[in-house]
Task: structure prediction
Amino acid sequence: MNKVLFFAHLRDAVGEESIEMEANGKTVAEFKQQISETYDIQKLDTVMVAINEEFAPDSEVIQEGDIIAFIPPVSGG
Amino acid sequence: MTDRYSRQILFSPIGIEGQDKIRSKHVLIIGAGALGSGNAEMLTRAGVGELTIVDRDYVEESNLQRQQLYTEQDVKQKLPKAAAAEKRLREINSDVKIQAVIGDANPELLAQIAQGKDLIIDATDNFETRLAINDISQKMDIPWIYGACVGSYGMSFTIIPGKTPCLNCLLKTIPMQGLTCDTAGIISPAVGMVVSHQIAEALKILVEDWEAIRTSFVSFDLWRNQYSSIKMSKAKDESCLSCGTNPTFPFLELGNLTKSTVLCGRDTVQVRPPKRLDIQLEELSKQLMTIGYEVKGNPYLISIETENKEQRMVIFKDGRALVHGTKDLIAAKTLYNRILG
Result:
């Protein structure tokens, strides 16, 4: 299993700060797609993903037990 | 005023030598809103040699809750933010050479004013300008510090050409329909926290303490009590068109920019994003209603009025917008960025 953390408005969209989900073996891009469909969230392509507190490119494969965080860049200032 | 910087000099990573370095540097701040005010005030108090601050907007009442340089008087006079900031900053520290630039920070202006600066601080409200700053930074080899906030959420990342990944490595494309302070609100502690992260990095860069630079991407949510610090070494992309081996600086090209044009004889400006978007109109209209805009619409477009009822903006599903009641291209783009990021 994997722990998945959501920041900012993604947390509101998902309804929880973190969830447990099976992501083992998926690439970051595939997992983004899955989250986007499950929670009906548009535009995850520019959301940053971190695996175990390290930036993860779309091609990275998620391992068992990895903690995945979704961090949306915002534009306000 | 020999005592003026004594407490900062006592801080050993700065010292007398560091203070001299700070005084010899010229910093450019892009934007004089909430982040711009905070950054400019801290740098002015810290005794930076020269500060150039650019902004296209004027002071409004809804700014006063968080934009620390401005007063009710500035609102009454509708002063341009850059001019009001310059006036206040001179009162705070007459040693610092302050230069206000009232204008739209497009690639052309950025290229002019970035020349010879030691550091650029991002205090803008949209990704298009940030990606242009990012390209200018790489092209001219000037470090810059990304900062952004919305609601109780904020983030910052320091970009040093040749050393760290750049913003384009992280984003790849311009995130559109990002949350903005005008659609999701903002509380001042989120601003202050981002400013503090930016200025801590700025001071390290100004005193040339390169070892001390934070290489992680920091983000936090002060209301939900979330903090994160992401290591970024894997983010550096050698094929990146901004900082890779063959850079083309795509965000300085006019074809990749939002276009504003005055529609003939209609007192209307059209704002068109660089590529077609697919705006979730229903979601956007709900957000705008929550914050008190009167929203009218149909499946193809929504229409809103500004607070003072002087302008009406119609947003189409493809991201295009018509701003009625103005011929001012910059005012129209300002309103567009406020709503759509």
